[in-house]
Amino acid sequence: MGHYVDAEFGGIAERAASIHPGADNPSHKQVPARIDLKQLANNPSGFLADELNRMWRDNNFDPEVLDRDAIGLTKLPPALQYLNTRILQMHDVWHLVAGCETSALHEIAISGFQLAQFGHNYSSMFPADALEQS
């Protein structure tokens, strides 16, 4: 959706992400490594990591939801690159912990959480777009 916003929006979003209290200084954080599914598979049954691994395996889900290279996360400034990568990695964890399904309504709920926690600009765009489509 980024191509729908003004060119100056990227800088505004980076500044907002950098100072959002819940984001915990993302400009200075190292972008997380890719999730290692083999390592995740070594967790004991009944733990969150095991549930997450089974959900990904049983549904053929990508552990990071979207391919970070394909969507250009490496081209983002530091705070947005870190936050977007981490949010994608945690997205399915939040589904499990919050008991959210993959319905549009539950995706909007997770977007609201992301917006409140991180000031994540895409998380405000997604519900607006979803509501416009309905």
Topology:
Elements: H1 9-19, H2 37-40, H3 48-59, H4 78-98, H5 104-118, H6 122-133
Helix pairs in contact: 1-4, 4-5, 5-6
Describe this protein's structure.
The chain has one domain (2-133). Helices cover 56% and strands 0% of the residues. It has helices spanning 9-19, 37-40, 48-59, 78-98, 104-118, 122-133.
Give short descriptive properties of this protein.
single chain, 134 residues, mainly alpha
Structure summary:
With 134 residues, the protein is mainly α.
Bulk shape: globular
N- and C-termini, Cα separation: 17 Å
Q: Nearest-angstrom radius of gyration?
A: 15 Å
| Uncertain spans | none
**DSSP summary, beta strand count:** 0
Helix content: 55-70%
Instruction: Please indicate the count of domains.
Output: 1
Main pleated-sheet profile: none
**Count of helices?**
6
What's the rounded overall pLDDT mean? 86
| SSE series | HHHHHH
Overall structural class, as computed from helix and strand content, comes to mainly alpha
Strand content: under 5%
